[in-house]
């Protein structure tokens, strides 16, 4: 997606060979116009799939999924929570996810009320690195007995293992921008 690649080139900040910061449009400040185009593009990529739920992880995935949901008729957004709280139901799907950026493991949880076995779930996230977040969400969909329609990623780091891990499960991955290499403050796309 050219618009996204241009934005990454112009505003992305390479923090290391493996970490890209995009907090001016995706992870802190949000460019709604760009997200709108991202939503349309996800719909285009998955137009052959029946989807009634968009599943993501808080926090950055929520904006992506919410804007995308407008293009999937009658769909609902569900986001996995990272912290246990009194507000969360007791009846939950839970799985452990290792955070690439924080270098630690944490639980993610979804109330059983919001995913059930009739659901066709498109998983969305901002980044794909080693695939732990997406695999955690896939595990939750499987616990619910629902179907994974695919995984949609805004920015994939193609030099990491995420895609291979997800495709091993026979699940389709669509990324809107795939980075091949990051060095000297420059991003090279596939
Ligand atoms: P994975 O679980 O695939 O290893 O990593 C994906 C998750 O880690 C995403 O949800 C995202 O929040 C975070 N992440 C991974 N790599 C990057 C990166 O280069 N930049 C940013 N901003 N987040 C990343």
From TrEMBL:
It is found in: Cytoplasm. CDD domains: PRTases_typeI. It comes from the Bacteria. This is Xanthine phosphoribosyltransferase. It comes from Clostridium rhizosphaerae. One of its GO terms (molecular function) is xanthine phosphoribosyltransferase activity. Pathway: Purine metabolism; XMP biosynthesis via salvage pathway; XMP from xanthine: step 1/1. The keyword Transferase applies. Converts the preformed base xanthine, a product of nucleic acid breakdown, to xanthosine 5'-monophosphate (XMP), so it can be reused for RNA or DNA synthesis. Keywords: Cytoplasm, Glycosyltransferase, Purine salvage, Transferase. InterPro entries: PRTase-like (IPR029057), PRTase_dom (IPR000836), Pur/Pyrimidine_PRTase (IPR050118), Xanthine_PRibTrfase (IPR010079). Pfam families: Pribosyltran. Residues 37-162 form the Phosphoribosyltransferase domain.
């Amino acid at each position: 997606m050219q618009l996204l690649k241009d934005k990454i080139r112009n505003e992305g900040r390479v923090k290391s060979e493996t970490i890209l910061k995009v907090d001016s449009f995706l992870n802190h400040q949000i460019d709604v116009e760009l997200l709108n185009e991202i939503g349309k593009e996800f719909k285009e990529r998955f137009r052959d799939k029946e989807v009634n739920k968009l599943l993501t992880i808080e926090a950055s995935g929520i904006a992506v999924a919410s804007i995308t949901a407008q293009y999937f008729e009658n769909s609902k957004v569900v986001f996995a929570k990272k912290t246990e709280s009194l507000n969360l139901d007791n009846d939950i799907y839970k799985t452990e996810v290792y955070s690439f950026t924080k270098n630690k493991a944490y639980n993610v949880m979804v109330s059983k009320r919001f995913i059930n076995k009739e659901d066709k779930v498109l998983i969305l996230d901002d980044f794909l690195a080693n695939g732990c977040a997406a695999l955690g969400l896939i595990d939750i969909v499987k616990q619910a007995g629902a179907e994974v329609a695919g995984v949609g990623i805004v920015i994939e780091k193609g030099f990491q293992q995420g895609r291979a891990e997800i495709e091993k499960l026979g699940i389709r991955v669509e990324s809107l921008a795939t980075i091949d290499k990051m060095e000297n403050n420059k991003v090279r796309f596939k």
